[in-house]
Amino acid sequence: MHGPVSAAWLLVALCAATGAYCLLRLRSAVEEQRRSAGDEALMGFGMAAMAVPAAAFTPPGWAWPLYAAVFGLAALRALWAVRRDRHHLHHVVGAAAMVYMAAAMATAPPAAHHMEGMPMNGVHAGTGVPLVTGALLLYFTGYVLLSGARLVPAAVAVGGTAPPACRGDRPELARACRLSMAIGMVAMLLTM
After folding, report:
1. For the whole model, what pTM was predicted?
2. How far apart are CA 192 and CA 184, in angstroms?
3. Which of 47, 92, 169, 183 lies at a CB distance of 3.0 to 4.6 Å from 15, suitable for a disulfide?
4. For residue 109, what pLDDT is reported?
5. If you ran DSSP here, which 8-state letter would residue 162 be given?
6. DSSP state for residue 57 in the 8-state scheme
7. Could you tell me what percent of the chain has a pLDDT over 90?
8. pLDDT of residue 121 exceeding 50
9. pLDDT digits over 41-89, tens only?
10. Are the CB atoms for 28 and 37 separated by under 8 Å?
11. What's the N-to-C CA distance of the chain in angstroms?
């Protein structure tokens, strides 16, 4: 079990670092950056907390419904924000995925918590992929591939410009954070 535990800690570190950077983006002078930074920080820290290995900490039973409620509210808030910025559709899908995983954890037996071989909708990890999990995997895998392809030209194009006043004003770093959270989401969904 050394492999999955160390991978889980790497996922915790990646998501927590991404959440911390998103908190720094809240200080940005660019309104567009500030608008999505809070949602992305919540997602990063929520994913980090959900990925902590069960050997280190097993949350109480009431934690999973609380996760579902918090991310349900985040999904509604992002859905409301879609009317002014289409980018928030990704936040809706991400928050809905967190609600889905939290609900699955709430209904799973205690031994299956922390995404290790957890049964989903009566289907065990070795016998097939539930429809919702498969759809979320397709979405986030596509998002990783598309945003990764978009990130490379953005990093090259910014290289010759003057440095921005605040680190939160760097759009390529914001894209890299979204990419790393999407990679983390794929990893979490694969363990379901």
Report:
1. 0.79
2. 13
3. 47
4. 67
5. P
6. -
7. 45
8. no
9. 999 999 999 999 888 888 888 999 999 999 999 999 999 988 887 878 9
10. yes
11. 16
**Token pair for 128:** 């097939």
User: What residues contact 98, with CB distance under 8 A and at least 6 apart?
Assistant: 43, 46, 47, 50, 67, 68, 71, 74
The tokens for 85 are 């910025």
pLDDT at 4: 76
- Whether residue 27 is predicted with pLDDT greater than 60 in this model: the reply is yes
Element (H, E) at 46: helix 31-51
**Rounded Cα gap, residues 116 and 125, in angstroms:** 9
Q: At residue 87, what are phi and psi to the nearest 5 degrees? A: -55, -25
Among 77, 128, 132, 74, which Cα is nearest to 104's?
132
Could you tell me which residues come within 8 angstroms of residue 100 by beta carbon, excluding any fewer than 6 positions away? 132, 133, 136
Residue 172 tokens, joined: 């390529």
Tokens representing 126 are 């070795």
